[in-house]
Every structure is written in C-alpha cells, then in structure tokens.
C-alpha cells in the first residue's frame, strides 16, 4: 500500500514512516517536501491509498481539485500547523477533506487516522498457527475445528491489541478507538477484556498494571 506524504518537516516525515512500519503492516510512504513535487506526480496519483498533505494555504482547494481531476481519488488527511486560525476550520470542512490533524502530534496519533482512512481495519486475518487464527472480517476466532464468534467490540479490541503488539494499549486508547470516545469506566473495559479472554482458548492477553493490556508471544 502506498501513501503520499507532503510535509516540509523531514524529521517528522521519518518519525511517521518509522511508526507506521513498527506495527503489523509495511506501508510504502512516498515523501515529498513541496507542493510542486505533488504536481509532478500526474499520471500516477491513482496508485496512492491516501494523501497526507501539509499545504502552504489549506484554504485554497486548488490542489485538492488537482488530485481529484487527475485520478487521485484516495482520502485526503490535511495536516495543519499550530498557527492555523481555528475559526477558519468551517471553510476546510466545506472543502470536504476526509480528516484534519493539528501539529504537534505523536506519530501514533496520525498512524491510527491513516489506518482508519485506508480501511486497514477491515478484511484482515491474524495467524497464530496454521490452524489457529483471528478472522477480523467475520468476527471469528478459529482454533482447529472450533469457530468462536466474537462480539463487535470484542473483535475490535482483539484486533487493536494485535495491531499494536508488542506495545501496551492504554485504557485511553481503548476508549478512543473501541468506544469512539464515549464516556466509559475502566471497569467497563476490564469487563470487555474478561469477556474476550473467556471466549479465546489461548492465553496471550497480558495485563500491564497501571497501564493497560498487550499481546504477549502468541499462543503462550
């Protein structure tokens, strides 16, 4: 999968690329530092799954129109400088960018926006062995001949843990990505983890006291 990243801050570009590729998927990030370089890619824009763009004038929709008129139909994630005037956000939303993120941000923050916009959270399988795997698309954990159906939030949690493995998933992460920012207690999250552990015949979800959860070596 290819991503087009227009950002003048080269160090930030490297951090974003390194963060994306620390996790489960290898993503080809094409990095450019000027809008002129974007214009030079006419003819190959359809190859990209997402455009992450830090534009000199984000209120000017001409570059977005250029993309759309030349085969660049992928989602656009707009990167904004901290000096951007918040009242002007209304204009940006009228331009129909797919998502917006303000600098400064952690690489992980933009990573999960990219995952969501690129639809990486669908149609994945995570294998533990040839006969044991998690089918995200069909919400099933397959263990030999046993087919275990998971609830939607159970499946989202398991997928999130596997994508972030071996890193710890915090309670705040779970609230944001599983519950879409709803107001839920840590007890509610613990209950969801207990339900998931109760259904899966393998012990690989570890509690990290005071931090959250992570997947340990699969199958152990």
Question: Can you summarize this structure?
Answer:
This protein is α/β, with parallel strands linked by helices and 220 residues long. It has helices at residues 10-22, 35-39, 62-69, 89-94, 107-117, 152-164, 171-177, 186-199; strands at 2-6, 28-32, 50-53, 76-80, 99-102, 125-127, 132-135, 140-143, 146-149, 169-170, 205-208, 212-215.
SSE blueprint:
Blueprint: E1 2-6, H1 10-22, E2 28-32, H2 35-39, E3 50-53, H3 62-69, E4 76-80, H4 89-94, E5 99-102, H5 107-117, E6 125-127, E7 132-135, E8 140-143, E9 146-149, H6 152-164, E10 169-170, H7 171-177, H8 186-199, E11 205-208, E12 212-215
Parallel strand pairs: 1-2, 1-3, 3-4, 4-5
Antiparallel strand pairs: 6-7, 7-8, 8-9, 10-12, 11-12
Helix pairs in contact: 1-5, 6-8
Write a structural description.
The protein is of the alpha/beta class and 220 residues long. It folds into two domains: 2-117, Response regulator (Rossmann fold), CATH 3.40.50.2300; 125-215, Winged helix-like DNA-binding domain superfamily/Winged helix DNA-binding domain (Arc Repressor Mutant, subunit A). 35% of the residues lie in helices and 22% in strands. The chain is built from eight helices and twelve strands. The strands form three sheets. The protein has a five-stranded parallel sheet. Strands 6-7-8-9 form a four-stranded antiparallel sheet, covered by helices on one side. The protein is elongated. The model has no long low-confidence stretch (mean pLDDT 87).
């Amino acid at each position: 999968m290819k991503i087009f990243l227009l950002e003048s801050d080269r160090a930030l570009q490297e951090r974003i690329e390194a963060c994306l590729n620390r996790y489960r998927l290898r993503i080809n990030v094409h990095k450019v530092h000027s809008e002129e370089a974007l214009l030079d890619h006419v003819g190959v824009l359809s190859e990209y799954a997402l455009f992450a763009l830090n534009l000199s004038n984000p209120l000017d929709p001409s570059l977005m129109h250029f993309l759309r008129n030349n085969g660049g139909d992928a989602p656009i994630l707009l990167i904004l400088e901290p000096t951007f005037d918040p009242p002007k956000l209304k204009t940006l939303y009228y331009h129909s960018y797919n998502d917006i993120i303000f600098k400064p941000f952690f690489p992980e923050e933009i990573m999960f926006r990219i995952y969501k916009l690129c639809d990486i959270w669908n149609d994945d399988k995570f294998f533990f062995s040839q006969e044991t795997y998690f089918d995200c698309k069909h919400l099933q954990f397959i263990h030999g001949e046993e087919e275990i159906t998971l609830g939607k939030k159970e499946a989202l949690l398991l997928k999130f843990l596997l994508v972030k493995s071996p890193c710890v998933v915090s309670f705040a992460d779970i609230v944001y990505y599983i519950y879409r920012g709803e107001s839920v207690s840590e007890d509610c999250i613990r209950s969801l983890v207990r339900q998931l552990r109760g259904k899966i015949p393998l012990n690989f979800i570890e509690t990290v006291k005071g931090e959250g959860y992570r997947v340990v070596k699969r199958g152990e």
